[in-house]
Amino acid sequence: MTSRKRIFLVDHMCVLPFGHNLNALVLFKAAMEPFYDEAICLATKYLPEYAEQSSLVERVLYFPYSGIVPTPPAKNVSGGGSSTKAKGRGGSSLGMRARFLLNAIAERYLGIEYTKRMTLQNWRSLFRKYRFTKDDVIFFPSAEHYGVVSLLEYLEEFEKDERPSVGIRLIGVAEGTTYSGGLGRAKFFEVIRKAILGGTSISLSAETITYADFTSRILGHHVEYLPYPFALPLQPIKWATVKNICSPGQGRADKGFLRLYSIIRGIIKRKGEGSFTFEVQNMRESDKYFRARYSDMLRSVDMLDLHPARMKQADIDDMYSRADIIVMPYDSDTYALRGSAVYQEGMAIGRMFVCSSGLGMSDLVKRYGNGFLADSDREFSDKVIQLSELDGEEVRAIVANARSLYEKDFDAGLNVTVSRLTK
User: Fold this and answer.
1) Measured distance CA(388)–CA(244) in Å, rounded
2) Within 13 Å, how many C-alpha atoms sit on residue 102's CB side?
């Protein structure tokens, strides 16, 4: 047990009833609460009550990104498909675009940081509500721009020895997301450097080894590698004659959704039908890259199940369970430094991977040895086939070794992070 009494796990991007923000809050709470007297998760006010695990968080945070990310409807919309036509509590998509434009003009041309002011004002009310003291910790498991920046600037108003400690886990997604354009990430790191020099106790960590090394060089301070906690226990590795090839997670262009048909057809062309089944999660109809014809092409493939873009976590878990090999043809521009919860959740239950080269998680695949890397669609097809031909006992040994090393890495990263949060 540390000398810290409470840890607050905070995410100003936790607004949607799907995705990994809510999961990360809950999982990191479970991992960190043994070190503290109390662990409290704080999500945004717009997180709907029907979101799975919403009862495990307190919905009190201002949502700074209402002009960038659509807010979900207050009540669940029946159907569960990929359409997002229902209005969120923030209004229509036109309203979201209007909020973006107004905030962008204010920040870029008038120098008025309205969103940061509102987030800082929310922090003031939270400090009154929860009576934060120097004995508390505020931890961001999925760091984003406005929440971190406004908190660190607010803490400048406190004496150094009266400030709670701050943990910032960098995941490379929303650190630079602002209404003012391309300088958001630079501002984010500038504020962190200033806060450290100003005496705020800050523990820095990152989701991948690549991102930890990169941000260490930028900040001039140590950034610990702290992967995503295992969400699920190891499950039986069937490795039957017919292998299930899976692409879980909402389909997106930067996650290689539009490459999957070519990869799958390449596998079938080389091995014929009957050796594999396929499962793919579809793209949202509101996504600008969505093409109904492409989804129909996927549906036309025998032995392929095309799932809705939005799925309940229990259904996603079932999808992982059925998988033998998970394919991740992710874009190197978007994921050059980043990890993926899909990779970490798949590893938790003991699945093998074929992943793009040149990503933050590519180094993890190499480190843990639980898959192959590929570049072209043809190479993806070939690597899936090569992986499928491994002996079942060899696969089980690979999975066991990968999980063991990953758990050691997580425990080491967690212990370093907690120790740095203790004055």
Assistant:
1) 10
2) 11
Q: Which residue has the tokens 């820095």?
A: 204
- CB-based contacts of 356, cutoff 8 Å, min separation 6: 256, 328, 329, 330, 331, 332, 335, 362, 373, 374, 375
**What SS3 state is found at 333?**
coil
In degrees, rounded to 5, the angle at the alpha carbon of residue 71 between the alpha carbons of residues 69 and 75 is: 155
Residues in Cβ contact with 221 at an 8 Å cutoff, skipping those fewer than 6 apart: 193, 196, 204
**Quick one: CA torsion of 244, 250, 253, 258, rounded to 10 degrees?**
40
Cβ atoms of 326 and 247 within 8 Å: the answer is: yes
The helix (H) or strand (E) run that includes residue 27 is helix 21-32
pLDDT digits (tens, 9 = 90+) for 293-345: 999 999 999 999 999 998 988 899 999 999 999 999 999 999 999 999 899 99
Measured CA to CA, the distance from residue 364 to residue 405 in angstroms comes to 11
Read off the pLDDT of residues 338-393 as tens digits, 9 standing for 90 and up. 999 899 999 999 999 999 999 999 999 999 999 999 999 999 999 999 999 999 99
CA dist list (Å): 162 to 129, 191, 199, 201, 352? 17, 19, 11, 11, 48
Supply the pTM of this predicted model.
0.92
Burial of 182 (0-12, 13-18, 19+ CB in 10 A): exposed
Structure tokens at 34: 């043994």
CA distance 117 to 64: 10
